[in-house]
Amino acid sequence: MAPHRIHLDDPPEPFDRGSTITIVGDEAKHAARVKRLEEGARVELLPGDGRVGVGAVRAIGKGKDGWTLDVGIELVRRVEPVRPTLEIWSSPPKGSRLEQMVDQLAQIGVAAWAPLSAERTVVDPREGKLERLDRIASEASKQCGRAWRLRIGPGGGIDRALGDDLPVVAGDATGVAYHDERVASADRVRLLIGPEGDWSDAERTRFDALDIPRVAFGPHVMRIETAAVAIASVVMHRS
Length: 239
Description:
This protein has helices at 25-34, 96-108, 127-143, 158-161, 201-209, 224-238; strands at residues 4-7, 20-24, 42-46, 51-63, 66-78, 85-90, 112-117, 151-152, 156-157, 168-177, 188-193, 214-216. It has 239 residues and is of the alpha/beta class.
């Protein structure tokens, strides 16, 4: 049986072989009440920063502040991030589609997602929504055993999206067919996905002026959440 995975938002230090750490909150309650772990049960600890702790449950308790789980760490291994490290900046889709998109991006190995505010963007997720997306990203990353969890960034406008020194690709149904020469050797790539109202003429002109490739990933116009997942899979697994 695979060991139970526990996500750690703020891992205690030292986090190394021989350490004993105490898990509290929802993760401890889930392990004790839902998974019904017992002393000696094998667990994986996922801080989300490339480290994976492997150990065993030493004690389970419940006090006035809730459940606790003491885990003795027997091994810590370090996992290299998936290459290329892919960031997606997209206009947020409406309603639950945004949460579904983040969940799926975590599953396929995308490194980060951030909300992009383009000229025709409609949805502007507030702080509370971004915090919920962060929880969804953590849960999805734990579910699929990622050593590096998907990060939720603050995002911003086109200026901010183009403001870092890394290769950028803009998904655009009117663009050229995808080829991976620009990103094949890159360690980090940023993919921009526009709103359902599409990029404006001014935004396309700006991409062209900055030599940002506008790339089509199929013959059909896709919803934002479909485009994000489909294009990310192509870029990550053909690079």
